[in-house]
Amino acid sequence: MTAADVIHLLDVMERAGVSVWIDGGWAVDANLGEQTRPHRDLDIVIEEKYVSRALHVLERLAFGPVEEDDAKPWNFVLANTGGHQVDFHVVVLAADGRGLYGPQDDDGDSYPAESLTGVGTIVGRTVRCTTPEALVGFHTGYDLGDTDWADVKALCERFDIPIPDEYDGFS
Q1: Over pLDDT 90: what percentage of the chain?
Q2: What's the pLDDT at 107?
Q3: Which residues contact 92 (CB under 8 A, 6 or more apart)?
Q4: Which residues fall within 8 angstroms of residue 158, CB to CB, at 6 or more apart?
Q5: Model pLDDT for residues 106-163, shown as the tens digit of each residue
Q6: Cα-trace Rg, the chain
Q7: Assigned architecture for domain 3-160
Protein backbone atom coordinates (compact mmCIF):
# COMPACT_ATOMS: atom_id res chain seq x y z
CA MET A 1 0.00 0.00 0.00
CA THR A 2 1.79 3.10 -1.22
CA ALA A 3 1.38 6.62 0.14
CA ALA A 4 -0.44 7.53 -3.07
CA ASP A 5 -2.85 4.61 -2.49
CA VAL A 6 -3.53 5.81 1.04
CA ILE A 7 -4.20 9.39 -0.08
CA HIS A 8 -6.48 8.16 -2.88
CA LEU A 9 -8.51 6.06 -0.44
CA LEU A 10 -8.73 8.93 2.04
CA ASP A 11 -9.86 11.31 -0.71
CA VAL A 12 -12.56 8.90 -1.91
CA MET A 13 -13.78 8.31 1.64
CA GLU A 14 -13.79 12.03 2.42
CA ARG A 15 -15.84 12.81 -0.71
CA ALA A 16 -18.36 10.21 0.49
CA GLY A 17 -18.55 11.87 3.91
CA VAL A 18 -16.63 9.10 5.69
CA SER A 19 -14.25 10.21 8.42
CA VAL A 20 -11.48 7.91 9.68
CA TRP A 21 -8.35 7.93 11.80
CA ILE A 22 -5.23 6.28 10.41
CA ASP A 23 -3.89 3.57 12.71
CA GLY A 24 -1.11 0.98 12.59
CA GLY A 25 2.02 1.38 10.48
CA TRP A 26 0.73 4.28 8.42
CA ALA A 27 -0.16 6.13 11.65
CA VAL A 28 3.43 5.64 12.81
CA ASP A 29 4.67 7.17 9.56
CA ALA A 30 2.03 9.93 9.59
CA ASN A 31 3.16 10.96 13.07
CA LEU A 32 6.79 10.88 11.96
CA GLY A 33 5.89 12.87 8.83
CA GLU A 34 7.67 10.44 6.49
CA GLN A 35 7.36 6.91 5.22
CA THR A 36 9.87 4.73 7.06
CA ARG A 37 9.02 1.32 5.57
CA PRO A 38 6.69 -0.44 3.11
CA HIS A 39 3.15 -1.16 4.32
CA ARG A 40 1.03 -4.11 3.22
CA ASP A 41 -2.23 -2.53 4.41
CA LEU A 42 -3.94 0.56 5.72
CA ASP A 43 -5.37 0.30 9.24
CA ILE A 44 -8.26 2.64 9.94
CA VAL A 45 -10.29 3.44 13.02
CA ILE A 46 -13.81 4.20 11.84
CA GLU A 47 -17.01 5.02 13.66
CA GLU A 48 -19.67 2.36 13.27
CA LYS A 49 -22.06 4.94 11.77
CA TYR A 50 -19.75 5.27 8.72
CA VAL A 51 -19.07 1.59 8.06
CA SER A 52 -21.83 0.88 5.53
CA ARG A 53 -20.93 3.99 3.54
CA ALA A 54 -17.23 3.05 3.61
CA LEU A 55 -18.03 -0.50 2.46
CA HIS A 56 -20.05 0.90 -0.44
CA VAL A 57 -17.21 3.23 -1.45
CA LEU A 58 -14.61 0.46 -1.29
CA GLU A 59 -16.86 -1.98 -3.14
CA ARG A 60 -16.89 0.49 -6.06
CA LEU A 61 -13.07 0.29 -5.97
CA ALA A 62 -13.26 -3.54 -6.25
CA PHE A 63 -12.57 -4.21 -2.57
CA GLY A 64 -14.20 -7.22 -0.98
CA PRO A 65 -14.06 -9.08 2.33
CA VAL A 66 -11.02 -11.19 3.15
CA GLU A 67 -11.93 -14.56 4.65
CA GLU A 68 -10.39 -14.66 8.10
CA ASP A 69 -11.18 -17.01 10.96
CA ASP A 70 -10.92 -14.21 13.50
CA ALA A 71 -12.89 -11.54 11.56
CA LYS A 72 -15.52 -9.78 13.63
CA PRO A 73 -18.04 -7.04 12.84
CA TRP A 74 -15.70 -4.56 14.57
CA ASN A 75 -12.44 -5.87 13.08
CA PHE A 76 -12.21 -7.12 9.51
CA VAL A 77 -10.19 -6.70 6.35
CA LEU A 78 -11.17 -5.75 2.80
CA ALA A 79 -8.82 -6.30 -0.14
CA ASN A 80 -8.80 -5.83 -3.88
CA THR A 81 -7.13 -7.84 -6.63
CA GLY A 82 -4.28 -5.31 -6.74
CA GLY A 83 -3.14 -6.47 -3.31
CA HIS A 84 -4.39 -3.41 -1.41
CA GLN A 85 -5.87 -4.11 2.02
CA VAL A 86 -7.84 -1.97 4.45
CA ASP A 87 -8.04 -3.24 8.03
CA PHE A 88 -11.15 -1.88 9.78
CA HIS A 89 -11.17 -1.13 13.53
CA VAL A 90 -14.79 -0.14 14.18
CA VAL A 91 -15.66 1.96 17.22
CA VAL A 92 -18.60 3.71 18.78
CA LEU A 93 -17.65 6.98 20.43
CA ALA A 94 -18.68 7.12 24.08
CA ALA A 95 -19.77 10.33 25.78
CA ASP A 96 -16.25 10.69 27.23
CA GLY A 97 -14.68 10.45 23.76
CA ARG A 98 -13.36 6.89 24.03
CA GLY A 99 -13.72 4.73 20.96
CA LEU A 100 -15.50 1.62 22.24
CA TYR A 101 -14.14 -1.34 20.29
CA GLY A 102 -16.16 -4.52 20.12
CA PRO A 103 -19.46 -5.48 21.67
CA GLN A 104 -20.98 -2.48 23.39
CA ASP A 105 -22.38 -4.52 26.28
CA ASP A 106 -18.85 -5.62 27.12
CA ASP A 107 -16.23 -3.80 29.14
CA GLY A 108 -13.82 -4.70 26.36
CA ASP A 109 -11.16 -2.76 24.60
CA SER A 110 -11.41 0.88 23.72
CA TYR A 111 -9.34 3.56 22.09
CA PRO A 112 -8.72 6.12 24.84
CA ALA A 113 -10.16 9.52 23.91
CA GLU A 114 -6.70 11.09 23.78
CA SER A 115 -5.48 8.39 21.36
CA LEU A 116 -7.87 9.73 18.72
CA THR A 117 -6.46 13.27 18.78
CA GLY A 118 -3.40 12.67 16.63
CA VAL A 119 -2.59 14.67 13.53
CA GLY A 120 0.11 13.69 11.09
CA THR A 121 1.07 13.97 7.46
CA ILE A 122 1.35 11.54 4.60
CA VAL A 123 3.17 13.00 1.58
CA GLY A 124 2.28 16.48 2.77
CA ARG A 125 -1.40 15.79 3.40
CA THR A 126 -2.64 16.34 6.94
CA VAL A 127 -4.44 13.29 8.31
CA ARG A 128 -6.19 12.33 11.53
CA CYS A 129 -4.37 9.46 13.20
CA THR A 130 -3.79 7.74 16.49
CA THR A 131 -1.23 9.51 18.67
CA PRO A 132 2.41 8.46 19.09
CA GLU A 133 1.84 7.59 22.76
CA ALA A 134 -1.12 5.36 21.88
CA LEU A 135 0.81 3.67 19.08
CA VAL A 136 3.67 2.82 21.45
CA GLY A 137 1.14 1.33 23.88
CA PHE A 138 -0.57 -0.61 21.08
CA HIS A 139 2.81 -2.12 20.17
CA THR A 140 2.92 -4.21 23.38
CA GLY A 141 1.26 -7.33 24.72
CA TYR A 142 2.02 -9.72 21.87
CA ASP A 143 5.00 -11.44 20.22
CA LEU A 144 7.12 -8.52 19.08
CA GLY A 145 9.21 -8.41 15.95
CA ASP A 146 11.80 -6.22 14.30
CA THR A 147 9.16 -4.04 12.60
CA ASP A 148 7.50 -3.39 15.96
CA TRP A 149 10.87 -2.41 17.41
CA ALA A 150 11.64 -0.07 14.51
CA ASP A 151 8.25 1.64 14.85
CA VAL A 152 8.45 1.99 18.64
CA LYS A 153 12.07 3.14 18.61
CA ALA A 154 11.33 5.84 16.02
CA LEU A 155 8.26 7.11 17.89
CA CYS A 156 9.98 7.07 21.28
CA GLU A 157 13.02 8.93 19.97
CA ARG A 158 11.02 11.56 18.09
CA PHE A 159 8.42 12.20 20.78
CA ASP A 160 10.50 11.56 23.92
CA ILE A 161 8.37 8.60 25.01
CA PRO A 162 9.90 5.98 27.33
CA ILE A 163 10.57 2.68 25.56
CA PRO A 164 8.34 -0.05 27.08
CA ASP A 165 10.16 -2.71 29.11
CA GLU A 166 8.97 -5.37 26.64
CA TYR A 167 11.58 -4.04 24.20
CA ASP A 168 14.56 -4.60 26.52
CA GLY A 169 15.80 -7.44 24.28
CA PHE A 170 15.91 -5.21 21.21
CA SER A 171 18.62 -2.67 20.39
Answers
A1: 81
A2: 60
A3: 47, 48, 99, 100, 104
A4: 31, 32, 132
A5: 566 889 999 999 999 999 999 999 999 999 999 998 999 999 999 999 999 999 999 9
A6: 16
A7: 2-Layer Sandwich (3.30)
DSSP-derived secondary structure for 6-68: HHHHHHHHHHTT--EEEEHHHHHHHHHTS--S--S-EEEEEEGGGHHHHHHHHHHTT-EEPP-
Vertex 153: Cα angle to 149 and 156 (nearest 5): 140
Question: 152 Cβ partners below 8 Å, 6+ apart?
Answer: 136, 139, 163, 164, 167
Average pLDDT, the chain: 93
Q: What is the mean pLDDT of residues 56-66?
A: 94
Parallel, antiparallel or unpaired: strands 125-129 and 75-79 = unpaired
Torsional sign, CA 45, 97, 115, 4: positive
Q: How far apart are CA 41 and CA 160, in angstroms?
A: 27
Residues paired with residue 143 on neighbouring β-strands, in sequence order: none
